[in-house]
Automatic annotation (TrEMBL):
CDD domains: S49_Sppa_N_C. Residues 191-332 form the Peptidase S49 domain. The chain crosses the membrane at residues 92-115. Gene3D superfamilies: 2-enoyl-CoA Hydratase, Chain A, domain 1, 6.20.330.10. Belongs to the peptidase S49 family. Residues 1-10 have a biased composition (Basic and acidic residues). PANTHER family: PEPTIDASE S49, PROTEINASE. NCBIfam families: SppA_dom. This is Signal peptide peptidase SppA. The keyword Transmembrane applies. Residues 1-41 are annotated as: Disordered. Keywords: Hydrolase, Membrane, Protease, Serine protease, Transmembrane, Transmembrane helix.
Amino acid sequence: MSDDWRRSDADGYQSPADQSPADRPAPGRSDHDRWTQGPDVAAYTDEAASVGAAGDDAETLRERQRLAQVEMMDRWIGGVLTEQRRSRRWKLFFRFMTLFLILALVATVVYNVFWAPAGDSSTLQRHLGVVEVNGVIASDAPANAERIIRGLNRAWDSDNTEAVVLHIDSPGGSPVQSQRIYAEIMRLREQGDKPILAVIEDIGASGAYYIASAADEIIASPASLVGSIGVIYAGFGFQDAISRIGVERRVMTAGENKAFLDPFQPLDDDAEAFWQGVLTQTHQQFIDDVRAGRGDRLSDRPEIFSGLVWSGEQGLELGLVDQMGSLEEVARAHVGEASWEDYTPRLDPFDRLTRRFTQVAASVLGLQAPNSPLRYQAQ
């Protein structure tokens, strides 16, 4: 036996050969295993040894040490599992918060696009109160009397609107819808609280010009189309076509003239004269209202009321338009900057989708027809 080995024996160290089976390390276990050695294990070992009885033998002390190590492992594993659960809960929390923020953002965008009322009357900055008149004017179209009138009153009632502006880009449409809007504009205009202006974009003709004529001023671009002060009815006569293909038309009415506009029956002279009288009377209503709205600004040239469409520059010479300009120029003239708020009520998205689908289907099937056969509409 070497001197090193003797020194080890003198220090109380035993070689593996001299160790008893209970003292030898378990197979596959390193003497430097971090799970069974180290300061934590030593602490638990010391604790176990310290609580042992004075007369405990070596086997009992080893068992206490093993139990202390097992307890330490249980505590460590429990701590790891607790930390994993805590980390998992935080991950779920952040995922739910992210999902909530995304849904809130989407809901805000959808609300602002489809349901939020246009034109916030609480806006402190002075601005123009704009009401959009886009497309055909009809009861079943976005440019209907109820919607435009509601927008007009909303803009009129706002304390911070410098002027109410009808922003028009329409070929016209229903006489009744146009007359309703015209009457409301004239009612507000008579109150004299703030000016009502009509700004025409590409086209403001027929029923759209009917509406514009009620405003205090009409502004258009030089290339805008204005006028078309007239009434139109358009139909077809198929009586010869159905006879050629052998189709019998069966119509029953109560009232001898109830079906006088039936396209499958000939239009006799009396029915034509009667219908022409309706058109003439409706046209005269149009003329009278335009004259009432425009006053002495209108030229006395008779062709103004012939149904012709004029450019904005020609309309200025005829008194149909007051000045050349755009919405931005009008805003700068009244509030010093291009600032305006849209007071047009939002469309119900489901109603808009249904209306669009119905219009497309009717157009494809050839069933699209106006509610009224008379139109204030440029052709």
